[in-house]
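Fold it.
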Amino acid sequence: RLSGLRMSPDGRRLVVGADPAHASQPRVAVIDASTGARSPLPGADAASFLSDDEVALASYRRRAVAVYRLDDPTHPVRSCLVPGDYTFLWKVSGLPDGTIVAETLTLETGRHRLVVLDRDCGVRATFSQDSISSFALSDTGTVVALSAHDGGNELLEISLDAAIVSRRRVAEALDEVIRSEEHTSELQSHH
């Protein structure tokens, strides 16, 4: 089962996540879009392109995001510590300027927060005002996140400095669609 799909800025490669049959198998791979050639990225649970030839990798239990060049996926170019009190490094996304947005999860509270890292691994901002359930990066360089707020759902647009740019109420059905997709994916992975 695929659990994530990201395309390189030039459209030549995809990074995909999968739930392997055995825990020791790679969970993330880069696929050449024209040939289908697959290159596993061992030790990664989440990945995102930073450029056409650079990828950011995260593992749930590690506290850092490693950046690799695709022509040498065995030696990290840099490793960026993701500070904070959390249980898992949940998801990672990147921008072509090298900015990394890492999502963390604290199991005790169920809260997700975002940590924005600059290209040199410095913490640019931390967003923890609202717990989020999902996020993506927009083409304008902002974060778009789904958040439960005041008994409903909101779509938040968040700057890379962790300021809320806008809040929009969204239909409750959106959360049901996300849960339904997650449930369907779980059922498919058990067959």
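The CA atoms of residues 60 and 89 lie 5 Å apart.
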